[in-house]
Amino acid sequence: MKTITLKLTLIVLFVATSMSAQTFNNASEYLDFIAEEQEEITKNMWKYTKAVAHSKSARSIDGKRKKLLKTIDQAIAKISKADGFEDDDYKNKVLKHMTFNKDLLNQDYAKIIDMKEVAEQSYDAMEAYILAQEMADQKMEESQQEYERNFYEFTAKHNIQIIESESDLGKKMKISNEVFEHYHDLYLTYFKVYINEVYLMDAIQKNDVSAIQQNANALVTAAKEGLEILKTKNTYKNDKSIIEATKKAFEFFIEEGEIQIPKITEFLILNEDFVKIKTALEQTNERKRTKEQVDNYNKKVKEVNNGANNYNKVNAQLNTKRQNVINGLNATNVNFLSKHIPKD
To answer: What is the pTM assigned to this prediction?
Structure first.
């Protein structure tokens, strides 16, 4: 019985260095060939799956995807050309596994990259993007599990003992999918509230008082509902970090909508009144302007100037608080994933 240390039983991919046919004298030799060809690309595939979740650059992710596809094609060519052992059953299973993952990269993950670019435009788009990502990850995990079953069947059939290492991909993928399921669940809870603030900021930029008030109310309502939802969420391995950081974000949104936004709308309404008074005064012949008109105009000028100072102060405070809250949540998310996702 031969003993083999199993390194990374991931997707059987590799960087081809030779296209000459190979023959094998025994099952262990053939298994060594497969393991040698897959190890480096296994690491790269793991990096790619993490990049899909972490990277903000769709171009960078797509570049890694295309590079992986090239190595898969090389792998298929080399494994296909090499002889199998005794029969082609295990070889065909390996090639089937590789082809499946190639198709997954070509179709599902390519679609995910496209979806990522528009995911933040609406809650529905974000939900669809996350669901597509989870489904693709699940398909890859299931493919890996099937590959490993075939691997162990082959080793058992040929009486080859395997010593597993902690870097086994099937275990890493299972753990990672659990981690991302928790992360995605909380992120969607956050995003459902956050998208209301996106609409609110757009209304403020347009100085649309009615839309500001409507979206501020919607933001406060969503944030309060979000706080209640957070109370029902389970932790992952007793890690409350994302829940606590999301809670802080919701508390900020409530303060923003209930306390600070009314100060902003108050100034915008004041400014609208000033514009009307100014326009009316400018359209009145100077000789026909009354003292009351002029006094009212001068009064409004002072009110608008004071209001503008307060408006700028409120905006600056909101921007600082918002940046701190969002940066804190982003940092918490990164730390959570880094802490719980298996290392390379």
So the answer is: 0.75
Confidence band of 5 (pLDDT split at 50, 70, 90): very low
2: amino acid identity, one letter: K
Residue 27 and residue 81 in contact, taking contact as beta carbons nearer than 8 Å:
no
User: Residues 203-253: pLDDT tens digits?
Assistant: 999 999 999 999 999 999 999 999 999 999 999 999 999 999 999 999 999
Q: What is the pLDDT of residues 94-114, one digit of tens each?
A: 899 889 988 988 888 888 878
Question: Residue 6: beta bridge partners?
Answer: 164
Token pair listed for 206 = 């347009």
Position of tokens 């408006």? 311
Q: Which residue has the tokens 């991909």?
A: 169
Domains of the chain, by residue range, sit at 2-167, 189-340
* 186 and 246 Cβ atoms separated by less than 8 Å: yes
Q: From residue 113, how far is each of 108, 141, 182, 246, 333 by CA, in Å? A: 9, 19, 21, 26, 20
The residues that bridge with 5 in the sheet, in sequence order, are: 163
Q: Tens digits of per-residue pLDDT, 9-31?
A: 333 332 333 334 577 888 888 88
Both tokens assigned to 110: 């390519």
Q: Output the 3-class SS for 28-90.
A: HHHHHHHHHHHHHHHHHHHHHHHHHHHCCCHHHHHHHHHHHHHHHHHHHHHHHHCCCECECHH
Shortest CA distance to 190 belongs to which of 134, 163, 230?
A: 230
DSSP 234-281: PPBTTB-HHHHHHHHHHHHHHHIIIIIHHHHHHHHHHHHHHHHHHHHH
